[in-house]
Amino acid sequence: MVLAAESLIIDGHMMSRVIKVDDRYDGNMASVRIEGITITCGKVGGQGGGIRSEEDLVLSRVKITNNRTDAIPFVDKQGGGVWSSGRLVIEDSIISGNLTGAINGEGGGVWATGMLAVVRSEVSENRTGTPERDVAEGRWWRNLGEWNGLDHR
User: How far apart are CA 17 and CA 27, in angstroms?
Assistant: First the structure.
């Protein structure tokens, strides 16, 4: 039996964040590539329900779905699907159905403070915890860093 990478699903079962990318060295940005997997049902109080990355990250042919951040007092609720402080490239991927489930949550799909590039990808059906903030505060993504373009096909 052959298990193709595209059939690999990592499921957090709404019990924890699915993936944390951090080499734990400030000032050193590791380059990480995640390819051909599904990341689903991650849940965290804080940032990055599906993925939290403090490194340079490329997501290729990745599906990030049904992840969330939950309300914890005095903790930022950002990036239901992905939270990134390094460079983030999303290519040929789907980020859908993620949620920042708290008042003042931002970036239901993606929260990025570094350079962000989205290429041939779908970012849809993501939400913040407050409907009136969905558009103003990044239902799909919130980018505080350099915008390197969007090729949304």
Answer: 24
Alpha helices per DSSP H over the chain? none
Burial label for 119, CB within 10 Å (0-12, 13-18, 19+), is middle
86 and 55 in contact (C-beta within 8 Å)?
yes
- Cα 69 from Cα 78, distance rounded (Å): 7
Which phi and psi angles does 103 have, rounded to 5°? Answer: -60, 140
Tokens at 60, concatenated: 């290729």
* pTM of the model as a whole: 0.83
- In contact, 55 and 32? CB cutoff 8 Å: yes
Token pair for 78: 């950002």
- How confident is the prediction along the chain (153 residues), in pLDDT tens digits per residue? 344 456 799 999 999 999 999 988 877 888 999 999 999 999 998 899 999 999 999 999 999 999 998 877 666 778 899 999 999 999 999 999 998 876 677 788 898 888 889 999 988 888 887 655 544 444 445 555 444 554 444
